[in-house]
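Risk mitigation, structural track. In case the binding assays with 4'-deoxy-4'-aminopyridoxal-5'-phosphate fail to produce interpretable data, a predicted complex structure has been prepared as a fallback.
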Amino acid sequence: MTTQRRLLMIPGPVEVSPAVREAFAVPPPGHLAEDVVEAFGASLEMMRRVWLAAPSSQPFAVSGSGTTAMEMVVANLIEPGDAAIVVNTGYFSDRMVTMLRRAGAEVVDLTAVPGEVPNVSRAEGAFADFARAGTKVKALFATHVDTSTGAMCDPAPLARLSREREALSIFDGVCATAAERFEMEAWGADVYLTASQKAIGLPAGLALLVAGARALAARDARKAETPLAQDWQAWIPVMRAYEARKPAYFATPPTNLILALAVGLEEILADGMEARFALHERGARALRAAWSALGLRPVPARAQNAASTLSALRFPAGVDASLVARVAERGVYVASGLHPAIRSEYFRIGHMGYALTRTDFLMRCVEAVAGGLASFGIAADGEGAVRAMLETLQAEVSG
Ligand code: PMP
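Fallback model:
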């Protein structure tokens, strides 16, 4: 008897495509090997296209995770005494505040209740307060999709405002990049960072970011020392060499992941970014129909704040956090709550990348959640929820 492997439907790491798995699962190549050089160079070029970034921007792919990418940005751009504004939507915005304060920044932290996004006018107010005190703001930070609540901010007005105030705008796209619309060049955003294990569709292990010309100039103008392993100036020659299809070394890259990155980004670009954003929107809408049929209410109260990459769902009456284990017993991993203020009141389901091309995965996920709910003795019409999901998917395809 074979048992089916549990389906990974947490908000990262996520299920990866067979082609990505094949690219990754080879004997480790050297970092100077021809196929690695080609994959590295091509990946950097493709990152600009996935990020919708300017030709003058600099992509970086280094060993690490999303936290590494966040730290790298702070290490290169923030100096002690710098003023910074954080548009805070939850757990990962809090992490950014901590990093900024450790780097010696003066931080204005604009918080919101879980599931809400601080209004742009509050960021305007923070810029005005700094201006009145004679302080120039170095950078505004925002989490594109906060993985702890499923709340999504609108980066475009924040990027515009930051430009107008001559501050950098920096966006954490760990739970968004390659899934939610982000037009780095058109919007004038200065840094967009992510990690490999979410909508990019790879195993964990790569920190990925693209820095625009203004961010690169800010690094060049920096007076404080930068930790060497994080230093853009140490990494830029390596990235440029690989892009010119020349081997280079500063610190060893995870070569199997670089091979997989080229395949993952090719898959994304084969569809095109518009199709990619639409895939996530459509999948999220279909799953929302299923959750609604099961009586599950999302944490983001406003539809325009709701991300397409994950569902954060409140436990209905009579259900508790053991739901996550009960769903796992039914073959699907979902995630517990993460936002400290509401941790025990909700759970999370990731839906990014490859899983959205697999209706069978989505059906298994909805059925497992329905089964988990039913195990509490509450009414949960799994068949009706699957039907609602399929009808929404169908309507979108034919509509
Ligand atoms: N930012 C966001 C929005 C995230 O979702 C995560 C990871 N869940 C991180 C940062 C940190 O990334 P990592 O766990 O890869 O270090």
